[in-house]
Amino acid sequence: MKKLREWAIFSLFPRHCACCDRLIAGDRFFCDECLEKLPRIEGVICPSCGRGKKECACGHKANYYNSIASPFYFEGELRKGIHRFKFRSAVSNSKAYAAEMAKTIGERFEGVQFDYITEVPIGRNSLRERGFNQCALLAKEISQITGIPYKKGILKKIYETEKQHGLNYYLRRGNLTGIYDSDYPGEIKDKVILLCDDVSTSGETFNECSKMLWLYGAKEIHCICAALTKKRGDK
Ligand SMILES: [Zn+2]
Ligand SMILES: [Zn+2]
Q1: 204 Cα: distance to centroid of ligand 2 (angstroms)
Q2: For residue 230, how far is its CA from the centre of ligand 2 (angstroms)?
Q3: Which of 69, 70, 213, 229 can bridge 218 by disulfide, Cβ–Cβ 3.0-4.6 Å?
């Protein structure tokens, strides 16, 4: 009976592995092969950069956010899956990543009472190209799983920056100064906020968004992303 039900679900809503994109049966998110090889961030984890002890090179410098966490490194088949999600509207992948992110939130931010989750804003050009903000999609899914309320558009990007790719770390730092703002300062003051992004490379986008939240008086800011590059600043 169970087999029949699984088959019926599969035929009605065939699922693709959120890594390698092959068709899978049942209500799973990853195929067996990818599930085994998921590049999980495990062991002792640095709260400043979200990486494992071996990969942490952040020097624990002060950030505007309190901590950062992610279930995965941005590698292998997962990297391809996230790429499909971002650029080719494989939006169903968001459920897979959100489920893993929700688990990570429970583990690493244990005891934190979030007032809400909101997304890192994307520029108008990217929104036009993609038709959706992938970070907002993840934040909404996470909200549904965890019960943390979702607030849309707390932050906005006030002007477009050069594409991040190809700029070195120091240039990027300068490039990101003061490009975010908010129309809702009253929603930020004294709040414990969870900020959601898809992939973080240097942590600077999180830091710049957090800077605005901090300036508007946020009490605590924590960051969650679907994946982190293994080395800070990698693309
Ligand atoms: Zn797979
Ligand atoms: Zn670190």
Answers
A1: 13
A2: 11
A3: 213
- Spacing, Cα 228 to ligand 2 middle (Å): 12
Distance 55 CA to ligand 2 centre (A): 8
Measure 94 CA to ligand 1 centroid, in angstroms. 15
What CA–CA distance (Å, rounded) separates 89 from 85?
5
**What's the predicted TM-score (pTM) here?**
0.87
Residue 233 covered by a domain: no
Ligand closest to the CA atom of residue 63: 2
Cα–Cα distance, 193 to 213 (Å, whole number): 9
User: What percent of the chain shows pLDDT beyond 70?
Assistant: 85
Q: Which ligand is nearest to the CA of 37?
A: 1
Q: Is residue 170 part of a domain?
A: yes
Distance from the alpha carbon of residue 12 to the mean position of ligand 1, in angstroms: 20
Residues of the domain holding 150: 49-228
Helices (H), the chain: 2-12, 32-37, 76-87, 93-108, 124-130, 134-146, 169-175, 204-215
pLDDT in tens, 6-34: 556 555 667 899 999 999 987 889 999 99
Domain count, the chain: 2
Ligand 2 centre from 222 Cα, in Å?
A: 15
Structural contact between residues 85 and 91, judged by C-beta atoms closer than 8 angstroms: yes
CA 32 – ligand 1 centroid, Å: 7
- In whole angstroms, what is the distance from residue 183 CA to residue 155 CA? 7
Look up the CATH number of the domain holding residue 201.
3.40.50.2020
Summarize pLDDT for 142-154 with one digit per residue, the tens: 999 999 999 999 9
